[in-house]
Specification:
Blueprint: H1 3-20, H2 22-33, H3 38-69, H4 74-93, H5 96-114, H6 123-132, H7 135-146, H8 151-173, H9 175-214
Helix pairs in contact: 1-7, 1-8, 2-5, 2-8, 2-9, 3-6, 3-7, 3-8, 4-7, 4-9, 7-8
Length: 216
Amino acid sequence: MSGEFISIFTASFVTFFVLIDALGVAPVFASLTVRGPASYRRSMAIRSVLVGTLIIFGFAFFGAWLLDKLHITIDAFRAAGGILLFIIALDMVFEKRTERRENRAESVLAENEETDHELDDVSVFPLGIPMLAGPGSIATAMLYMSQHDDWIGKGAVLSAIGANMLICLLIFLAAGPLVKAMGESIAGAITRIFGVILAALSVQLLIDGIKGAFGI
């Protein structure tokens, strides 16, 4: 395994780990699936991760083609992605992102109660989209894939995405005990730390986009 692959994989892995925030999604997953048996929770975990992976991979492969058809330069997309990620980072630092996730979970649970406690399929929405395959992870997948012309770089990015989704699956499968062990305060602290890291990454993307657009 080459040093270039490891370097790109590491940088991509950290970025997607922060963006997807599996530890932050775990409490939401647990609350959405708490009324179902173990088989239901396992099914929702597998299906939600599969849906999220397919969506992110789809945009990773065909995002550049879409940008070309829309006549959007990669530098403009890089700058816009930086701004978008910075907004997400602010939400994470001030816990707005967690609040919205909890509101979605409460909404879905309320709908389940109104339908005689039938267990709905929550794997596509809200778990697959937008909690796993959100705007930040989709935009970053498109951006990182467009930055590499060779398959070493592209393979490293795809491997990083796949590794993160595998971690999501493992965390979802152990969501119940994990949430109880972490507690709300620890989960909140982890989300805030990830938000600060993501803010720094987003500013760097914005700077790179501006430099490329104006030839600085």
